[in-house]
Amino acid sequence: MFSLLRKKSSFGFVMLLTIYLLAAPESFARASQQHAATPVSEIVVWTYDSFTSEWGPGPEISGRFEEASGIHVRWVVHGDAGEVLARLLLEGVDADADVVLGLDQNMAARALRSGLLEAYKPVGADKLFPESIFDASYRMIPFDYSYFAVIYDSERIVQPPTSLEALCAPEYERSLILMDPRTSSPGLGFLAWTKAAYGSGWKDYWGRLAPSILTIADGWSSGYGLFTAGEAPLVLSYTTSPGYHVEYEDTERFKAALFDAGHPIQVETASLVAAGKHKENAKKFLDFMLTPAFQETIPLGNWMYPVIDIPLPDSFRVNPKSDTPLWPEAPSDAELSEWAVFMAERLER
Q: Does one domain contain both 336 and 248?
């Protein structure tokens, strides 16, 4: 019975539509042409996975920017930041992107050398913390920063490590989760950190560290997910990570291990893609990026510090800032390949 009624209803609708089209073909054609001719004002932003996750700042930023400008943000995710850069370099001028968001200073040499990024000094750049600006050409514009650190589970680790060397101690055997420096910005930052600390002896250090490593994840999201699932009591992350657990889990169980020699800073950036199809929309997005409407989503969305002076959430009280910010030199492509071969041999043993 219900099926028969649906069929009759559909038949009646088709007849009415046919009559309407025969009676008013010109008005229908005009309406169709007007609808087809209305462009969707948009911008294509490439970024890493956690930025656009349901708990990341991306969805909130999309809504705020579209409300302010009428421009729709189409996010395209390519894993972690290292994968975003690799994809950009691979596709070159054919990359379907207007803005690349998430590259940091350790990726700057390769990104800037490519010639794929265009200089643009956004409105509001004078409000940036001066220490966050590492590219005076503004081809890489800061939007947040933090410090790399080893986060530990205080219910499982009584005495946290206080140095890179301490991570090699026997009590931390198979206790540490790291990220691959070829695909992950924290992984790249950690390799740069060890190179700065040990110089030409950096491979010897990694040889000593290998027994402490449980796994090397492809990106921060997967690595930190293993940590929160209890797979290991130590993980590479940021000094700002403990605040997340205070804010959403009401616990101070997870803490940053402060190293006496200091911690590398990471400054994340957004860049105007020179071959982008929506250049003016992209510039409006970069202007918006340095306003409070964007920046206030960073602390509780991306768990990093904003790059302009705005109030921080109370949960940031547990996030230590390094007294000694380090700016280690980024590893070369050759050193990344050397690391991969060296670690493949060590971790197979």
A: yes
Cα–Cα dist 173/214, whole Å: 8
Using the structure block, give the residue that is written with the tokens 């940021």: 238
- Domain of 343, in residue numbers: 146-264+322-347
Confidence (pLDDT) at 324: 86
Question: How confident is the model at residue 77, as a pLDDT?
Answer: 96
Whether 199 contacts 205, CB under 8 Å = no
Same domain (yes/no): 232, 110: no
Residue with tokens 């000593």: 208
Q: Examine the domain organization and report whether 255 and 329 are in the same domain.
A: yes
For the chain (349 residues), the mean pLDDT of every run of 10, in chain order, is: 32 37 42 44 96 94 97 96 96 97 96 97 97 97 98 96 98 97 95 97 97 96 96 98 97 96 96 98 98 98 97 96 90 95 83
- pLDDT score at 40: 65
Residue 165, domain member (yes or no): yes
Instruction: Check which CATH number belongs to the domain holding 127 and give it.
Output: 3.40.190.10
What is the 3-state composition of the chain as percent helix, strand, coil, each rounded to the nearest 5? Answer: 50, 20, 30
Burial 269-305 (b: 16+ CB within 10 A, else e): bbbbbbebebbebbbbbbbbbbbeebbbbbbbbbbbb
Cβ-proximal residues to 323 (8 Å cutoff; 6+ apart), any chain? 262
Query: Taking a C-beta distance cutoff of 8 angstroms, is the pair 61, 285 a contact?
Result: no
Same-domain pairing of 171 and 210: yes
pLDDT at 1: 32
Structure token digits, residue 31 = 């309406």
